[in-house]
Write a sequence for this structure.
């Protein structure tokens, strides 16, 4: 695993959770007994990252450690191990480009060149603070390769042109529609489904159960 260091200079010396995050913190801590609160460290770090502009500063990690009564080093170990936690500032829209085999075979290398051209090197933040990017491992949307995750949204079935257009919209303050960027619904075939097209398969009508099987008296009566 690559060495991951904190950006101490950019992190400042203070961090506090947003007031609206406190309910989420209570939710996650409530999942664990009083003597097992350390088990909430990953969701707590995730919430801290969201409240800190998409990355974890050292003060943010210390705040999580203090709340969970953990030694700072134990929280640092978690944050530096999982690459879902970023240890340096990112743009308002952070692009995670999947470079694993299915995406690579479908054109991820071309998308990488788009990111280099439109944004810069990996983890570079554009001067307007709006864009940054990094290459990541599989994001689990292989059937929609190649794809990227931008903040919390997936943008799938990309081409260099469509990714360029998406980055341009985000840079200029416009919205970009997530999901497949071709004529398909979710992971269905392009152009619409070719099989399993009967509506009753999906409207719930076939799930109606009138008699539970294998119960006494559930067998139909035989003619005498």
């Amino acid at each position: 695993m690559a060495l991951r260091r904190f950006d101490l200079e950019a992190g400042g010396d203070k961090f506090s959770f947003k007031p609206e995050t406190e309910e989420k913190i209570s939710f996650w801590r409530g999942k664990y007994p009083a003597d097992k609160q350390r088990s909430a460290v990953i969701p707590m770090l995730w919430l801290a990252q969201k409240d800190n502009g998409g990355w974890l500063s050292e003060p943010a990690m210390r705040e999580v450690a203090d709340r969970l009564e953990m030694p700072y080093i134990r929280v640092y170990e978690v944050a530096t191990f999982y690459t879902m936690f970023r240890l340096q500032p990112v743009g308002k829209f952070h692009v995670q480009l999947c470079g694993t085999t299915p995406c690579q075979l479908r054109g991820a290398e071309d998308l990488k060149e788009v990111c280099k051209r439109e944004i810069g090197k990996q983890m570079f933040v554009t001067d307007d603070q709006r864009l940054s990017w990094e290459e990541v491992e599989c994001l689990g949307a292989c059937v929609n390769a190649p794809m990227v995750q931008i903040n919390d949204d997936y943008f799938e079935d990309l081409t260099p042109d469509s990714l360029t257009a998406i980055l341009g919209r985000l840079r200029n303050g416009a919205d970009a529609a997530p999901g497949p960027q071709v004529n398909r619904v979710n992971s269905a075939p392009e152009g619409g489904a070719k099989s399993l097209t009967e509506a009753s398969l999906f409207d719930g009508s076939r799930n109606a159960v009138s008699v539970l099987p294998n119960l006494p008296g559930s067998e139909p009566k035989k003619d005498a």
Summary: Residues 141 and 223 are 55 Å apart (CA to CA). The radius of gyration is 24 Å.
